[in-house]
Amino acid sequence: MSWKTAHRSFYYQNDPEPEDLSLPWSETALLCIDVQNYGLKPAEDPAERARWEPFRRRMHETVIPNLGALQGRFRANGLDVLHARIACLLADGRDRPLSQRLPGWNNLLMPLTSEASQIVPELAPAPGEICVTKTTDSALTGTNLRLVLHNMGIRHVVVTGIYTDQCVSSTVRSLADESFQVVLVEDCCAAGTDALHEQELAILNRIYCHVVTSPELCAMMGLG
Question: In this structure, which topology does domain 25-221 adopt according to CATH?
């Protein structure tokens, strides 16, 4: 099954296959979202550690190596790689939005200089690459990323990162609302569970983005 038929929701089950994508190198950039240390550190509680083990395994076995290879191909061909990370600017987190201060898993307190908020070493920005810091789910909300992309002449954004159903999804929707063409690379993303990942891909696909695999993307862009 190719990207043209995969990840279809109810809305698009009977639609014809989409046309081939056109992603001119000069107008296309890779955006890597929130692949930070906080998502990979095993929990101290044994039950929580076991519950999150499938996610960590996907990150180490699939997402990090695939995204690292994709970054390498973009850089080797002179294409832009951009990064976004989530972190609070104040140590006590007063600058965070309400959604990150309510009780529960999404209650994130990651000061800017903390180890948890740093991008994993394997995917760290290369010298000169743009990295924006956000306190919101969407990489466009509360940053100058929208302006930066427009100034660079970027019209097509290839999105990767974590979590598929949260910050990745919010960013994809924001980009689509700003009339960027968005391509989501499914094997360079992860959610808390594979089921959540697959559900969100079907929700986003065709409405807000086109979902592809990294080999499909490299083939359609000619990234040798």
Answer: Rossmann fold (3.40.50)
